[in-house]
């Protein structure tokens, strides 16, 4: 079973033997023969591309926030101006991530469901790495939801009211949860690439 996402079930031949050489990266073991209709393949590639773009935006944003922006602001800014800056930065970043999360869920859910149907039709199960990736991804979505709609709202209210100790505590919680999501993201990537 290859780790590449299976093509849509409607475009697959499912009578493939369970043993044999692995498919090339651009194909899938559940149906190696090209479909006479290229449209299902194109849709699969578009969905996978959108999924990867959204994941890159999310992971890349967290990388920048954790490894560049936060250390820089801690080094050169006083707490109150830093809190005001982060309120503006997080407002924009979390809105972008919210869009990315919607894209990840929509495309990932569609691809995962198609993969599960194709795997079932061929008599195989999905690789362990896929299932772990899905589990880690859903956990990341829940963590982000708490960050965006609970932690960040608390931080915004504290900054608006100049309650700096409360804002600092909320910011520390947000940081810990972003670190958690960053780790979960890499675990998901490692799982889908390394576990079959």
UniProtKB/TrEMBL annotation:
Keyword line: Membrane, Transmembrane, Transmembrane helix
Transmembrane intervals: 49-72, 93-112, 132-152, 164-189
Pfam families according to UniProt: CopD (PF05425)
InterPro entries: Cu-R_CopD_dom
Record-given protein name: Copper resistance protein D domain-containing protein
Residue span(s) of domain Copper resistance protein D: 88-195
Lineage: Bacteria, Pseudomonadati, Pseudomonadota, Betaproteobacteria, Burkholderiales
Annotated GO CC locations: membrane
